[in-house]
Design brief:
Structural class: mainly beta
Strand order of the largest sheet: 5-1-7-6
Radius of gyration: 16 Å
Shape: globular
CATH topology: Nucleoside Triphosphate Pyrophosphohydrolase
Helix content: 10-25%
Largest sheet: 4 strands, mixed
CATH architecture: Alpha-Beta Complex
Number of helices: 2
Number of domains: 1
Order of helices and strands: EEEEEHEEEH
Length: 150
């Protein structure tokens, strides 16, 4: 079945998922390993008040490695470097807004920067890995958290 292009806008008829990126930064804290997390705001409401990795949508024409560093800085005020692909999650329904494929990057954080929630993050902080659970972590981000509990 061929997808025809629109004669007006030139777009094809393919329904494609959106690409998101999430920054996974880890440090050794007083209570052991800590992850840089944001507290989510009200969009979508099901995740409001829960922890998530700083991240967001890749802009059209943007390299995902640039996007993950941009999102980390925008949401936490923490500068990151050296993004490395850690994991990919893309099950339909993982995001209630639309089908999103999430690229999770491990990022080296500038540990001199103090996290401050900004953009659409209510707050940002370092959280001990052991304090994170499926009850307080948004969506499927707990799958990534659990990688650091092992």
């Amino acid at each position: 079945m061929a997808n025809e292009k629109c004669n007006i806008c030139g777009r094809d008829g393919y329904r494609s998922p959106s690409i998101t990126v999430d920054a996974v930064a880890i440090r050794n804290g007083v209570d052991g390993r800590e992850l840089l997390m944001i507290e989510r705001g009200p969009d979508p409401p099901v995740w409001e008040g829960k922890y998530a990795f700083p991240g967001g949508f890749v802009d059209y024409g943007e390299d995902p490695e640039d996007a993950v560093l941009r999102e980390m800085l925008e949401e936490t005020g923490v500068r990151g470097t050296n993004p490395r692909v850690l994991h990919i999650l893309g099950a339909p329904g993982r995001d209630p807004r639309k089908h999103c494929v999430g690229l999770f990057y491990q990022v080296d954080a500038n540990l001199d920067d103090v996290p401050v929630g900004a953009d659409d993050a209510v707050s940002a902080t370092w959280i001990p890995v052991e304090h994170l659970s499926s009850e307080n972590v948004a969506a499927d981000h707990i799958k990534i958290v659990n990688m650091f509990k092992e």
